[in-house]
């Protein structure tokens, strides 16, 4: 298994753990704004870049195929992010059009959900395209 595929699987696991953490905090507290604390699990993505003591990591070599997969994965991730932001920007104000105010619980987690969605779609795209042998 290549480092490229290992990285995508790690990101997918972190995205899944994040969804579980957000759901668990929401079940425990019953507060949508407090459940955004579960997005702190996304900080685990930063551990990919840390060197492991005692283990020498060979340099990652990417060929044209890997670069094409990366481009498509980023494109799919950003497409999902922008589709989410546009849908959120249209649906949420319509849902609260009676009072004219959108509660903070629906505004604050937008960036977190967008980052989570970008990571999820990007890692899934990498795994699918890599397994198909693009």
How does this model look, in words?
With 134 residues, the protein is an all-alpha fold. Helix 1 runs antiparallel to helix 4 and helix 2 packs antiparallel against helix 4. The radius of gyration is 18 Å and the shape is globular. 14% of the residues are buried.
Task: Name a few traits of the molecule.
single chain, 64% helix, 134 residues, mainly alpha
Q: Helicity range of the residues? A: 55-70%
pLDDT averaged residue by residue: 86
Number of helices: 4
The geometry reads as: globular
Tell how many strands the DSSP assignment holds. Answer: 0
Radius of gyration: 18 Å
Unreliably modeled segments:
none
Q: In terms of structural class, how would the helical and strand content be classed? A: mainly alpha
Largest sheet: none
Give the N-terminus to C-terminus distance in angstroms.
16 Å
Percentage of β-strand residues: under 5%
Give the helix/strand layout:
Layout: H1 3-29, H2 64-95, H3 104-107, H4 110-132
Helix pairs in contact: 1-4, 2-4
Précis, in short:
By secondary structure, this protein is mainly alpha-helical. Helices cover 64% and strands 0% of the residues.
């Amino acid at each position: 298994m290549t480092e490229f595929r290992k990285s995508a699987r790690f990101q997918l696991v972190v995205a899944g753990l994040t969804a579980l953490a957000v759901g668990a905090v929401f079940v425990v507290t019953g507060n949508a704004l407090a459940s955004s604390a579960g997005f702190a699990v996304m900080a685990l993505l930063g551990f990919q870049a840390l060197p492991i003591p005692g283990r020498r990591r060979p340099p990652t070599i990417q060929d044209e195929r890997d670069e094409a997969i990366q481009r498509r994965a980023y494109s799919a991730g950003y497409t999902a992010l922008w589709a989410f932001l546009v849908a959120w920007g249209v649906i949420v104000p319509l849902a609260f059009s009676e009072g004219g105010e959108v509660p903070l619980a629906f505004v604050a987690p937008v960036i977190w959900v967008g980052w989570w969605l970008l990571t999820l779609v990007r890692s899934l795209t990498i795994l699918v395209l890599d397994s198909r042998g693009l």
